[in-house]
Hints:
Layout: H1 8-12, H2 15-26, E1 36-40, H3 46-54, E2 59-64, H4 67-73, E3 81-85, E4 99-105, H5 114-123, E5 125-136, H6 142-151, H7 156-159, H8 172-181, E6 185-198, H9 203-209, H10 214-217, H11 222-239, E7 246-258
Parallel strand pairs: 1-2, 1-4, 2-3, 4-5
Antiparallel strand pairs: 5-7, 6-7
The protein binds S-adenosylmethionine.
Amino acid sequence: MATDVWKPQLYARFRAERSRPFYDLLAMVRERPGMRVVDLGCGTGELTADAHKRLRARSTLGIDSSPAMLEKAAPLAGDGLAFAQGDIAVFEDPTGAGYDLVLSNAALHWLPDHPALLARLVRLLAPGGQLAVQVPANQTHASHRLANELAREEPFASALQGYVRHRSVLTPVEYALQMKRLGLVDEESRLQVYVHELSEPADVVEWCRGTLLTDYERRLPPELWQRYLDAYRSRVGAALPDEHPYLYTYQRILFSGRRPR
Ligand SMILES: C[S@@+](CC[C@H](N)C(=O)[O-])C[C@H]1O[C@@H](n2cnc3c(N)ncnc32)[C@H](O)[C@@H]1O
């Protein structure tokens, strides 16, 4: 498995802001008695544990590829809640029975080919089971645009061998259509804008360092990664208004659909 650059502490720094969309997603879930749930890309597991409790699920399995994130999650296991290392791209239901809920919050944007991925996820559903997903869609914000702009410039472009973070996230319309085509019912798909009040524009760098920049961090040698980060910090500083608090707008797509019984 590739180098693990996830930093649970850095990721947790904006916990309140990051958990809001999760609870909006959870509000889209139709609770049923004794659910069997899988949370794909569960991270440090606090939200998985909360979903497990709120849904009064019979069992919930959190899957993540990062040992650092899973190490934080491990102590939360018990009472039907478990965590395991795995890759969403190849994850299969070990029992073959299908899940009543396939949940994924802020993780699927790390995987390519969403039409094929959704088809896989739908196959994980039991009859009547629900798919509920939240993916970031903030690529037009300077924080995301500048990260890729820099990756296209030297010396980073050569070190990255031309790699620029891909954009696999579809539009809300495409997710709605994909779900319909895959035979799901009660489909819902929406774009939501969150406005996060950060104390200063520099916080945006810390926010992105905990997520999207990890993609460049693991591909660059340490010395170049530091140069990349310094350059990113100064570009973001120049691009964003010097407001205190800084209002960081963040677009996300939430979608859900149910497999007929
Ligand atoms: C932004 S975090 C979200 C964590 C959690 N769902 C939350 O809302 O706090 C994304 C997580 O997805 C995991 N991830 C990314 N690609 C993955 C893959 N292919 N298979 C499993 N986990 C993956 C990362 O390790 C990370 O913990």
